[in-house]
Design a protein that fits this description.
The chain starts with a helix and ends in a 39-residue tail after the last helix. It has two domains: about 1-40, no CATH class; about 40-100. It contains six helices and no strands. Helix 4 (about 40-60) packs across helix 5. It has about 130 residues and is mainly α. The longest helix has 19 residues, at about 40-60.
Length: about 130
C-alpha cells in the first residue's frame, strides 16, 4: 500500500492517496523514512531491548515468572517499564508463565491397619543374597 503511494507521488497528492487508502500521512512518512534510511525509531529500539531482557529473565526463571516478577527483574537491571507493558510484550513474544504443579499427598500414615516391623533397622549390608 505504501509502495503504491510512493510510486504515484507525481500523479496524486499524498493527502489524497492516504485518505482514499485509509492510512495516515504520518504512517506513510515513517514507512518512507524507514525504507530510505533503514533506521528504527527510538521506541522500537527500546522495545527490542526490553524484549531481549524479558526473554532473558523469563528463561532464567525457567518460564515461571509472569509480568509482575519480570517487571521487578527489569527494575533491578535498571529498565523502567510498567507491568502492563511487560505483559503486552510477553504476549507479542508468545511467552506465558507456567504454573507449578501442586503436589498431591497420597500417603496416609495415620491409620489403624497393621504395620509390618522394620527387620533391617537400616542395616543394608548382608553376607549372602536372600538372607533378610
Amino acid at each position: 500500500m505504501y509502495s503504491f503511494i510512493q510510486d504515484h507521488l507525481d500523479e496524486y497528492s499524498v493527502v489524497k492517496m492516504c485518505s482514499v487508502l485509509g492510512v495516515s500521512k504520518s504512517s506513510f512518512y515513517k514507512w518512507r523514512d524507514f525504507q530510505v534510511k533503514g533506521k528504527r525509531t527510538e521506541r522500537q529500539a527500546r522495545q527490542d531491548e526490553l524484549k531481549q531482557k524479558i526473554f532473558q529473565s523469563y528463561h532464567e526463571s525457567h518460564g515461571t515468572y509472569g509480568s509482575p516478577l519480570l517487571q521487578k527483574d527489569l527494575e533491578e537491571w535498571g529498565y523502567s517499564a510498567c507491568e502492563r507493558t511487560v505483559g503486552r510484550l510477553m504476549q507479542e513474544m508468545g511467552l506465558c508463565a507456567l504454573q507449578d504443579k501442586k503436589v498431591v499427598v497420597t500417603t496416609d500414615s495415620n491409620h489403624e491397619q497393621f504395620v509390618y516391623p522394620n527387620l533391617l533397622e537400616r542395616r543394608f549390608a548382608v553376607d549372602t543374597p536372600n538372607t533378610v
